[in-house]
Every structure is written in C-alpha cells, then in structure tokens.
Amino acid sequence: MSDFIKLWRNKEHQDIELLSASFTNFSFSKHFHEELALGIIEKGVEGLDYNGKKLMIPQGNIVAINPGEMHTGFAGTNKGWTYRMFYFDKKCIENILKDSFSKHSMVLNNASINNPSLFSSLYLLHKSLEEDDFTLNKESLLTHNIHQLFIQYGDVKLEERLSFKDYKYNMIIRDYLCDNYEENISLDDLSKLIPRDKYQLIRNFKKQFNISPHQFLLLLKIKKARELLLKGGDITDVALSTGFFDQSHFSKKFKTIYGTSPGNYLSFFK
C-alpha cells in the first residue's frame, strides 16, 4: 500500500473539509481539531491514542473525534490503513441540528462506531462531495447522516412533533419537483415551500412515497430524458436540457435505472 493524501472542499459546502488518504508507516503526533472529525475506515486498521485509551478501529468502522479532544493516529497493523475523513465546522453541525432538536450538543459518545448502514451512507456522502452530484442529493445525505449520527450516538433530545400525515405538504413538494425537474434543486428550495425542517421534509416525503425527494427528482429527470431520446434527441443535448452536468454524468445515472448506457438503449429501438 503506497501512501497518498488528498484534501478538498466542495464548492457548495465550504464549511466541510474533506480528506481521502492511505498511510502505511506514518503516525500523527498528538493533536486536536477545532472541527468535528468523522471518518470511515475503508481498508486496514487505524490506531488511536484517545482519552487515555489505545483504540484499534478496523475496516468498516466509523471514527468520531469530538472538537478539542487530543488524539494521535497510526497504523494498527503493518499493512496500514485507508480512510476518508470529514472535518465539520461547528456552525455546520449546529445549522443542521437546530430545527429538529430542542436540545443538542456537539458531543458524540463513541470514538469507534460499528454501524454498517451508517458507514455506507457516510461513504455515499463523501463520494457525492468529491464528484459532481445534484445539490439535493448532497444536502439530503448530509442532513440524514448528521441526524442519524447524533440520534444514535450523541447527547440529543428530539422535539415532540405532531404525528399526523403531512399529505398536503408532501404533494406540494412532489408537484414542485415535477414542475422543475430540469433544475438543480436544493433542500433549501424545498424547505421554503412548507413549514417543516429539512429532516422532517425528507422523512415525511419518504414515508408517503417510499422514495426520497432526491431519488424522485432523479427518476423524473431520467424519465423525461428517455422520452426525448426516443423522439430523436441528441444524447448530449438531452442530458443538459434535463439538468445533468454532462453526458458522462447522465449516462452513469441512466445506467443505474435501465442497466445500460443511453446509446446502447437506443440501439434496441432502431
């Protein structure tokens, strides 16, 4: 395993620093972060000296370091470790949690978390912040992951909410997505339409339609693109007119639904 490191910030989320790295023999000296440091171990084992304990965090686990807490970082085995990290500014976390929790803090209770579902979801979030992706997907993943992290492992208390179905509000969101499918819609755009916070919006929509707003929007885009292609539209023109970043982005998403590229799909109808 050769050492490498990559650092970046997504243009739409400047309050999150991102890292992807692999180390074999390198060790971090004792230090702390002002941000919430949250990572996923992709390969190998990372060792930590943390709160007076030596922790070994294996592949498939999540590492969570609270702001201001001293720690080290080193290879847990002679094969090193590969991992992805988020460094969340405190304001970023507060802004995500403030509407859904009557009480919240930045403190997580576990430095090593074994939660395959959350691990997979954090991986998808990290990749979406590395690659071109729709704003709504990035924001939905961000909101979902932070809420789940603090609900399950943080010191938070959920506000009491009314239990009735938000059918009317869900239909407003659905209609807006249908009417504006070609746009790069954000969660902020949707949350302005109804008196619900972002987490509730996603949860309620998914409860009614069994699909998230982002997934619904993606299906709308692909459905419309397919219609235009079958009418003779150029693949690149169709991709751009339905709100994809470019032909490559469109082809990748199209294949997830139809199992093949747009060009190959069209060849069956010639």
Describe the structure.
This protein is α+β, with helices and mostly antiparallel strands and 270 residues long. The protein has two domains: 4-153, Regulatory protein AraC (Jelly Rolls, Sandwich), CATH 2.60.120; 161-270, Homeodomain-like (Arc Repressor Mutant, subunit A). 43% of the residues lie in helices and 25% in strands. It has ten helices and eleven strands. The strands form two sheets. Strands 1, 2, 3, 4, 5, 6, 7, 8 and 10 form a nine-stranded antiparallel β-sheet that branches. Helix 4 crosses helix 6 (198-209), helix 4 (167-179) packs parallel to helix 7 (213-230) and helix 8 crosses helix 9 (247-258). The N and C termini lie far apart (48 Å).
Give a short synopsis of this structure:
This protein has 270 residues and is α+β, with helices and mostly antiparallel strands. Helix content is 43%, strand content 25%.
Distance between the termini: 48 Å
**Assigned CATH architecture of the largest domain:** Sandwich
What oligomeric state is this?
Answer: single chain
Total helical segments: 10
The number of domains is 2
Helix content: 40-55%
The radius of gyration is: 21 Å
Mean pLDDT: 89
Q: How are the secondary structure elements laid out?
A:
Layout: E1 4-10, E2 13-23, E3 28-31, E4 36-50, E5 53-58, E6 62-65, E7 71-75, E8 81-88, H1 90-97, E9 101-103, E10 112-113, H2 116-130, H3 135-153, E11 157-158, H4 167-179, H5 187-191, H6 198-209, H7 213-230, H8 235-241, H9 247-258, H10 262-267
Antiparallel strand pairs: 1-2, 2-8, 3-7, 4-5, 4-6, 4-7, 4-8, 6-10, 9-11
Which terms would index this structure?
270 residues, Jelly Rolls, Arc Repressor Mutant, subunit A, 9-stranded antiparallel beta sheet, two-stranded antiparallel ribbon, 10 helices
